[in-house]
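B., you asked whether I could sanity-check this one before it goes into the benchmark set. Here's the sequence:
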Amino acid sequence: MPTVPRTLPVPRHRIGPVVEALLHLARNRGADELSRRLAGLIEAADEFLTAGEALAEPEAWVPRQLGSPDRERAARVVDGVVGGAEAGAGGLADGPVPSGGRGATDGAESPGPRGGRSGTAASRSTAEPLTEPSAPSAAGSSSPHSTPLRTGRATWENAATPRARAAAPRRTDGAGPARDPRPALAPWWAVRLLGETLLRLPDCTPYLGVLRVLAGWIVERARERGVPQDFGPWFWAALALPAEERADLLRRLVVADGTGGDDRFLAAAGEFLGADARTAQPLLCAWFGDDRRLPALPAATVATAAQALLYTHREGHADTLVDALVADGHERADELLSTLAEEDPGAVCRGVARWAVDPRPARRVAAVAYGLRAAPYAASEADRELLRVAAATLLSRTADAALHGGALALLVRDPVSRGRYVEQAAARFAAAQDPQLTAAALGVALASHPAPVLDAYRRRLAAPGSQAGDVLRVLAEEAAPAVAAPATEFAAALLRARPGTAGHVAAYAERRLARGGADAEVGALVRAAFRTGPPSVRAALAPLVAAPGDAPGAALRGELLAELLREETHPDVLEALLVALVVRHDTRPGAAPEERAGHAARLRSAVLRVGTVLARGPEGGRRLDRRLAELARTVPGFAAYALAWYDEDPGVWRALVGSGGLRTIEDVAASGGRTAPAGTPDAERVPSAWHS
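And here's what the prediction gave me:
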């Protein structure tokens, strides 16, 4: 009868002494020696698992050994029972396994399955040689470590000594050698020894290199096989690490989320943030530079996940969050601060009050920048008071002269302090190009103090190179009736003094008409420009009168169009008007039939009137033909309409459209699908290509 071989592996329940030996190695030979052993275990786990051996997964659960920082977690172990037989040497009888393996014996005097004693000579002579059960195959294993591809590296069998291979146990029935349990046990030992040793270290800081390698291995393995349960988020939360290093490891690991398993490293980061927000918030700001994609959230990155975590967990810690964000200075921190200025202005206003008295110049700059962002959303008097005090403090510091424009903008915005500071703000705006004291910032005082504001605008625009667009945009948006007439007079005077601002003045008049209630003032401005302005001014204002019939101020636009066509003969102005008529009218056959017919009729009449006047001048016919061809190529649907008009009345349109222009119109209409004239039944219409 064969005897039990002496080369049986150490049973799993004896892991405790092995872990103690590794910890003893660290105490006696230093962290470097243990780091080499732990790195070897990572390599071994990778090699054995890659070679096709999965972890054994019997269903007995016991707590981890005493002293583990995660004692409530469970680890699967093998109870060593084979068909009800008594345990042999190195095995365990059935029944609960003592925690840490300290209650088991080394093959003698271990309790049997029925309360008897096993390990005697008689029992050993009649029992089969007992080995650790083998792990299930890769296809049927429930292990979190699924089987990866082979890497070609040495497997456990290749590394075994010849003597160990020669001593393989034989089956008692003579059927050949029994299965060698060691390849199945190798990955179990590598993973468990690594995890248990790291968990029991009183300080893992000297082993950060090992932990980073382990984190990288987990991320790489998780792409196809999921995160191993032995190294899930709970494991990293239980390690004895300072907060900074824990945050860095979580940053490396969050990209493993979404690859399998229920645990999420991102959720662990949220718990880490909630446990000590003051410490964790600056550490998560360090994630803003990491743009790796998250498999669990394909549209997100590590950086955007950090933003979301900080925003979500700000409750009760908003003040420390804004301080951490302003200290970080990253563009994503700026994005989050801008969001907080809208949604939590109180926290930003309190931050502005702190930063305004901070001795660091960068903080005072931030006080102005984020104070201006939060001011439009500061609804409570307490928040506005914080901004007023901060702005006054900055304005009183002569060393912060560069910030005085922003401070004045804050003080002018507040109705309580506006009267005291509006004159100073107007003088500064007129004298300097201050990026913080803008036309819009001063424009909030238009309704209450129109005289100093308009005077500041006038003085500012008198300087060479100044931009009129911002000022006219502010004037156009001012809804106070008392401001409308002075603002339009201001625009007219600016147009007379600087004809190059005609485009900005036209945009101002368009906005005024769109808002309603300013028809008289705008009409006077446009009529004066049509009568006395140079061709460039008239061409710039021509689109104003070319709007569709349902545009705001349609009656005034129609009157101005008729007046322009009675007197205008300059080809530049007429061409600009023709282009505006075609572009601004709806020529696309997507509306209701009656609406489409009305648009087409108005457009036909206007184009015919303008074309007739333009064709009378020298070179007018050539310019009209070229312009109609260009409009046919660039304005969807116009070619089909123009061809339909030509077919309806060739005698009239032949005088306006030359052979070259007609050929272009026909080619474009044919390629895009011809639109039938209004009144043709829908069934007979061929939709244009753009419409489909």
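One thing to flag: The two ends are 88 Å apart (CA to CA). Otherwise nothing jumped out at me.
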